[in-house]
Amino acid sequence: MTKTSAATPPLLRRVNAGKLLGVLSSTGVMTGTGLIEATGLTRATVHAVCNDLIAMGWVVEHDPGRDDSLVGRPSRRFEFNSHAGYVLGIDVGAAKTTVLLADLRGETVAKAGRSFQRSTSAAERTSHVHDAVVETLSVAGITDASVLAAGVGVAAPVDRDGNILVDDEFWRQFDTGLTTRLTSLHGWPVLLENDANLAALGEHWRGEARGVDDLVVLLAGERFGSGLMDSGRLLHGSRGGAGEMVYLKLVEGVGDTHGIARIAREQGLSAVASSVPTRLRELPGPVTAELVFAAAADGDKVAQGILDDIATRTARVIATLGIVFNPALVVIGGAVASAAGSLLPQIEADLATFTATPPRVTTSSLGDAIVGVGAVRHALNYVETHALDLDLHPRP
């Protein structure tokens, strides 16, 4: 997938090409004059480098059209070729995987997923991920040759070299050799990252945290996990453990890493098994977090009490993050985010009693796609960094 050094432009033209590509990839159609103003390069350089980028497949040139009010040659018009290649964003959870295929502006082209048992073996989980990838590419009519990179998120710490921290039994189940296997099967680079870190990337890029550089994204479904961003930069720690929340076992009023969905479900089941009157006992099917939130919204006192406990517990979790990392914003993300909006008033009230510097708290609008969106951004970051070394095979 990488070109030989003989095919790359000389150093100065390469630097200028990167500068122009960076401008074009974040805008729409631009004239040569607009690119001159945006980059400070000369007209001759802009046109020469754009010709290089057109030949490489990164840029397309539009018909300049005709404007009788202008004197002289019409200005050339250039646009970043968002279909020069594609990236994948893959979210690998304990019981399901979701795959997003996106163009080079990050727009979703296709999506597929697979569910599996939590006891699924490493080989079987890898097979499910591979099947979801194959389905996604097939739906979009894209071949492996057009994929430039894949970002993959797992619910375990990942260091800067892409190695999973395996000190915890839960983390260990994600150390399956997935990146090596996918690269072997498909040929494209696979970039492994912690799911909460990717959630922070996704939220900062397309979510509620756009423009916020001091940020915590709190994944709060089955287990709490946090992605930390300081001055717009992800924090990893020496072994990838920054933001991991095993420390919650030591926090009074919390005691474990169980997330909002798990606590709601377990307390709901306990209420149904007790003699306390509650509508949860009358609801169809097994007790789920969604049913507990629905019952609370309908006025069930037991369900409301469960959510009150969860809100106070979550406020304690956020307070620890606020005290240690001092973010401007904490975003509650994951599949539970839409329901967690009802917890915000009490979270904010309790938070003010736990810390003198409470961060602003909100819920994500990205839903259960938050990790996949961040994985797409992670892959795009790789493409932007290595663009001039990549061979392009766009879809015909």
From TrEMBL:
SUPFAM superfamilies: Actin-like ATPase domain, Winged helix' DNA-binding domain
Keywords: Kinase, Transferase
Entry annotated with the keyword Kinase: yes
ATP-binding in keyword set: no
Pfam families associated with the record: ROK
Source taxon at top rank: Bacteria
GO MF annotation terms: kinase activity
Membership in a protein family: Belongs to the ROK (NagC/XylR) family.
Protein name as it appears in the record: Putative NBD/HSP70 family sugar kinase
Organism classification: Bacteria, Bacillati, Actinomycetota, Actinomycetes, Propionibacteriales
